[in-house]
Amino acid sequence: MPTNWAGNVVFAADRIARPATVAELQETVAAADRVRAFGTGHSFNDIADTTGTMVSVAGLPGDVRVAPDRRTASVPAGVPFARVARALHAEGLALSNLGSLPHISVAGAVATGTHGSGDRNRVLSAQVSAIEYVRADGALATVGRGDDAFGGSVVALGALGVATRLELDVRDAFDMRQDLFLDAAWDPVLDAFDAVTSGAYSASLFIQDWASSAIDQILWKSVVEDPDAVPALPPGVDAGRSLARAVSPVAGASDDTVTTQGGSIGPWLERLPHFRHDAEPSNAGDELQSEYFIDRALAPRVLESLRREAAAVNPALLVSEIRTMAADDLWLSGAYRRDTVGVHFTWKPDPAAVAPALAAVERVLADADARPHWGKLVGPAFTDRLPRFPRGRAFRELAEYADPGGKFRNAFLDRVLGA
Ligand SMILES: Cc1cc2nc3c(=O)[nH]c(=O)nc-3n(C[C@H](O)[C@H](O)[C@H](O)COP(=O)(O)OP(=O)(O)OC[C@H]3O[C@@H](n4cnc5c(N)ncnc54)[C@H](O)[C@@H]3O)c2cc1C
């Protein structure tokens, strides 16, 4: 059977369906006892798995269609963000944000609350203004912003139906630059945390060694208004400026997979993602990932506490990344109703080494009212996941209403929603 991208989940599906039309998809869903959509398989847990039919919508016909007012675009659910980005850019338009990886499918990313960074940028799912779903009975239905259940219908874990098209907010295309700062001492960064993360349109802090007195990389992605302006870290935060074309956040990994840095100006779609759309991303699949979302007001204290767990975390770690998100209204979003900091861990592909590291991390994060990323690994303290989200119970009711026979259920959803 096929596996997810990281190879740590072997899918248990007895059949994979790749419908070529929406009508065929509707028949497949209506006829199935158990059915589950999958995107590009970039999640690190069994969220996309099923013992029944796995269905891919990547082969459905349809293109990116820009609305006459040029404020939204309707996009096919199964295509990668890279394809949507190219089509929008050709029309002089843009998405306001992207995740680190442009290879992931739009529907898969939206279903798990995938995010990029930026104090004023919301998670990618919050760019959705409407979704068309094939429901459990095979009927086609659209839910849009303003509808009663919209807040629960976007980050929906594949539990409400199979998405065929999504309508996304768009804006005019823009130019960006990436500036990479090296070895900034921790204490001044924590003292000026808000200024460091708000100093650019999107900011990421990369940590390869939690015991170090310095943060290995600070990556700023800035919207270019004045081509001669050179972004600079806030006063008191000292760091080297990298002039290299690109430096991977993972020590020792190829720099060729990384989008252009060094202050070079380019279009939004070639700067917002960390990884190039035309290269095998990140550590080429030899990794696992976990991520937790905390109230941004707690970030300096939580990061200090995590530094004290360095001895447990470092042996399993490839790299950590700290990003920010603006609050939104999506029930299962990591940033639901609070401005948020995401604390991410890319682990070595060694579950035995990851387990004690996760336990150490979760000791800190459980006390910080953290929410886990839906598409990544958790340890025992976060296995139930749903109670961490204030509207979790409302989502469970919505899922039961939308799918009374449990057609879209799988082991992951049984753990989260209750069998
Ligand atoms: C190298 C790497 C980098 C990453 N970077 C980021 C990042 O920057 N930010 C971040 O937040 N996450 C990141 N992730 C995690 C990733 O964005 C999520 O796991 C995302 O869900 C993957 O999308 P996918 O298309 O592979 O979905 P899949 O893993 O295939 O599916 C995920 C979920 O989406 C549902 N789904 C898929 N298609 C449909 C559909 N048509 N209708 C209804 N439900 C559907 C599935 O049922 C499942 O529940 C990264 C992952 C990797 C491997």
Written account of the structure:
With 419 residues, the chain is of the alpha+beta class. The protein is 20% helix and 24% strand. It has helices at residues 22-31, 81-90, 106-111, 186-191, 193-198, 299-307, 310-313, 351-366, 392-402, 411-417; strands at residues 15-17, 35-38, 53-56, 65-66, 72-76, 93-94, 128-134, 140-144, 162-169, 171-172, 175-185, 202-207, 214-223, 240-242, 265-267, 288-295, 317-325, 340-347, 371-372. Strands 11, 12, 13, 14, 15, 16, 17, 18 and 19 form a 9-stranded antiparallel beta sheet that branches. The protein has a 5-stranded antiparallel beta sheet with strand order 4-5-9-7-8. The longest helix has 16 residues, at 351-366. It starts with 14 loop residues before the first strand and ends with a helix. Flavin-adenine dinucleotide (FAD) binds at residues 5, 36-43, 47-48, 57, 77-78, 99-101, 104-105, 107-109, 111-112, 114-115, 157-158, 162-163, 281-282, 373, 375. The site of flavin-adenine dinucleotide has 34 residues, from strand 2, helix 3 and strand 9.
**How many β-strands, per DSSP?**
19
The helix count comes to: 10
Spatial shape: globular
Mean pLDDT over all positions:
97
- The proportion of residues in beta strands is 15-25%
What Rg is obtained from the alpha carbons, in whole angstroms? 21 Å
Give the fraction of residues assigned to helices.
Answer: 10-25%
Alpha-carbon distance between the termini? 25 Å
Spell out which ligands are present: flavin-adenine dinucleotide
* SSE-based structural type: alpha+beta
Contiguous low-pLDDT stretches (5 residues minimum) are: none
The helix-strand sequence is EHEEEEHEHEEEEEHHEEEEEHHEEHEHH
The major pleated sheet works out as: 9 strands, antiparallel
